[in-house]
Design goal:
The longest helix has 21 residues. This protein has a seven-stranded parallel sheet, sandwiched between helices. It is built from ten helices and seven strands.
């Protein structure tokens, strides 16, 4: 078991790492021994989180807007000014938009698709040489896409582009996994359920109510997300290729029963 879940000596880049699920993963990786770079649009928040997380290891802030192909290229260039190789890429940054079907705007569609689907693809593409550089069959590099249970089952909220984008990233994970495995770059995904965050304000502000709809009886905690992400990033997850790990307390299976 020695080293099975260790990230000692590994370098990770986490988009949207200043808060929520990205911050949970960043802290988990630092505690597991990785050097972590986090990025976020709001520079002050990104810097503050990196400073706080530095208590657990080396955490470097790379503030900036990574959305779209141009944003992905810019972030990759910024990262490569610090490192020549990358062991773990977590495509976590995301956006949501809700509006009635008859009124749903193109801007709400494009913003969500650009950040949730286009950015992970082009950031992975831009950083592919760095991901391949140190990768081997014995120690592959990892790309972990953060999806959502809304890409696996139907949420009746009118977040049309969000649900479509998360279903899209789950399928893209499978396709990328088959393409990149030959170069010892392993691609997988996580589909979180209810975790308290700025994006999921309902879980954050109404934990007791949301917990009633979760078979496990509670919302997700930081350790739940960190554990899943460490598993996929470490030696323990080397043989998980193209799969999406659902971390939701059972909600996906219960939605057909009225949840």
């Amino acid at each position: 078991m020695d080293g099975l879940f260790s990230l000692q000596g590994r370098t990770a880049l986490i988009t949207g790492g200043s808060r929520g699920i990205g911050e949970m993963i960043a802290e988990g990786y630092l505690r597991a021994g990785a050097k972590v770079y986090i990025t976020a649009r709001k520079a002050a928040d990104c810097m503050a989180t990196a400073e706080r997380l530095s208590e657990f290891g080396t955490c470097v802030a790379l503030p900036g807007d990574a959305s779209g192909a141009d944003g992905a290229q810019s972030l990759a260039k910024q990262y490569l000014e610090h490192e020549s190789t990358l062991d773990i890429l977590v495509n976590n940054a995301g956006a949501a938009w809700g509006a009635p079907f008859e009124e749903f705007p193109e801007s709400g569609w494009d913003k969500v698709m650009d950040l949730n689907v286009k950015t992970p693809f082009f950031l992975t593409q831009a950083l592919y040489p760095a991901l391949k550089a140190n990768a081997s069959a014995e120690s592959p590099s990892k790309v972990i896409n953060i999806a959502s249970i809304d890409g696996l089952s139907v949420n009746m909220m009118q977040t049309y582009s969000y649900a479509a984008s998360k279903s899209g990233i789950i399928h893209l994970t499978k396709r990328l996994a088959l393409e990149l495995a030959k170069d010892n770059v392993i691609v997988s995904a996580i589909a979180p359920g209810a975790f308290a965050s700025q994006m999921n304000k309902v879980a954050r502000d109404h934990e007791d109510m949301v917990s009633q709809a979760v078979p496990s009886g509670r919302i997700g905690q930081p350790a739940d997300m960190a554990g899943a992400a460490i598993f996929l990033a470490s030696r323990a997850g080397d043989y998980v290729v193209g799969s999406t790990l659902t971390v939701d307390g059972g909600v996906t299976h219960a939605r057909g029963s009225g949840f």
